[in-house]
Amino acid sequence: MDVGFLKPLFDRPGPWACAYIDTSRATEGAPTRRRLRERFVADQLTGQGADPATRDALVGRLAGEPAARPSAGRALFAAGGEVVLDVPLAVSPGDVETSWSALPRVAPLASLRGEWPSCLLVHIDRAGADLELRDAGGVRLAGRAAGGARRGRGHRSVPADRHEWHYRNRVENAWDQTAERVADELVRQWSDSDAQLLVLTGDPRERRAVLDRLPEPLRARAVEAQHGTRTAGCARELLEAEIDNVCAEHVRAHLESVLDAFRAGRGRPGGQGGKEHKGVSPSGTAEGVPAVVEAMRSHQAATLLLGQAGGDMRHEVWIGPDADQLAVQRAQARALGVRAPEPARADDALMRSAAVADTEVLLVPEGVPGPAGGLGALLRWYG
How far apart are CA 83 and CA 61, in angstroms? Predict the structure, then answer.
C-alpha cells in the first residue's frame, strides 16, 4: 500500500482525535443510528481527553455525512480543531473505534482501506486510443492518442485487384503508424503517472500491435483484457470485473514476491540470529521492533511488513515531532535530540515514518507466514 496520502497528518503537531466508523448499513433507522453514533463518539473522545474544538470538528463532520455512501466505512483524523483527513474504507471497521493520542491512529488503515494498485487503462482501436487513470482519486481521462482517418480493416488475403491491394496496404501502413503513436503516448503517460499496472483493451490484433511496440520494462507491466472497446457501454460490466481480477492478482503476486524475498533474506547466512549492524540484519531484512525501528529511522526499508498476528505492533516506542525521531527507549529518543519524548504504538509510529519516507507498507494476512511478532522490513540496501 502506498501510504503517501497520509502525509498531511504529519505536517502538523498533535494530539489527534481519530474515529473509525461503519457506513455500510443504510436502513430506515439510519438517521437515528447516526445521531446515537455521533453522541457515542463525542462521549468517547471527551473521556479520552480530547479538547472540545477538535472533538466538535470531528463529530460535526460525522453529522454532515450523506445518507448513503459508497464506502464500507470512514476513518477521520482531526487535530487543532480541524478535520485533516476523511478516508473512505473498503472494509467495514465493525464497531466504532476512537482514540486520542500523540500520533494519529493510522495502522488500522492497512487492513481496512484495501490494497488496490493504480492502473492505466487503454481502450485501443484503429483510430487511436483513449487512456484512463484509475487510482485512489477515482477514474479520469489521462489522454488520447489519434492516428489517421478510420478506413476500415482490410483482409489478410491478397486481393486479385492490384489497386485494391495498394489500398489495403495503405490501410495497414496507416494502422502501423497509429500503433506507434499509441505506444509513444503510453510511454509518456506511464512516466508521468504513478500507475503500477497497464491494461490494454480492444481487438486482439490491435492490442498486440501496441504491446509489441512498448519497451520491455513497460511491456512487463502490461496485461491484455479480453473485454472492452472505445464504444461507450460495450461489455463494460465484464471489463470492470476483469480489471478487478487483474488488480487482485497483481496485489497477491506482489505480496508473495516480497514475502519470498523476506523469507530468503531471513534464511541467508548472517540473517536472523546472526551478527547485526546497528540492529539491522546484514541479510537484507529486519525483524522485530528494534531492528525495524532502526531500518525505518535510517531510511533503509523498501517495504514495511505488518502482520495481523503478533504483539510487536502494540509495542510501545518513543517519538519526537520528526518522523525520524523514533526509538525503542526514551533515552535513545533523547539522544536523537528529542527534548520531551512521547510514547506511541510501534505500528502507528512506523506508519508515520513510512509515509514520510515513501516506504511501501504491506499487510500480511492472518494465516500467511510473515515476520515473527508481526513486524518486519525488506531493505533497500544493507551491509
Answer: 8
Q: Which amino acid is located at 375 in the chain?
A: L
The predicted structure's pLDDT at residue 302: 94
Neighbours of 222 (CB within 10 A): 18
Instruction: Quote the strand ranges of 127-263, DSSP E.
Output: 128-135, 138-146, 197-202, 222-224
Name which of 105, 70, 118, 62 is nearest 90 in CA terms.
Answer: 70
Give dist(CA 305, CA 369) in Å, integer: 11
Q: Give residue for cell 467495514.
A: 92
With a cut of 70, say whether residue 174 has pLDDT above it: no
- The confidence score (pLDDT) of residue 162 equals 52
Query: What is the separation, in whole angstroms, between the first and last Cα of the chain?
Result: 27
Q: Letter for the amino acid at 58? A: L
Q: Containing H/E element for 237?
A: helix 236-267
Q: Which of 193, 191, 117, 10 is nearest to 362 (CA)?
A: 117
The whole model's pTM is what? Answer: 0.78
Helix axes 204-212, 162-192, angle to 10 degrees: 60
User: Mind listing the domains of the chain with CATH numbers?
Assistant: 4-112 (3.30.960.10), 119-234 (3.30.420.60), 255-379 (3.30.1330.30)
Question: What nine digits make up the cell of 200?
Answer: 490494454
Q: What is the separation of C-alpha 228 from the centre of its chain, rounded to a whole number of angstroms?
A: 25
Residue carrying C-alpha cell 503516448:
185
Q: How far apart are alpha carbons 22 and 362 in whole angstroms?
A: 23
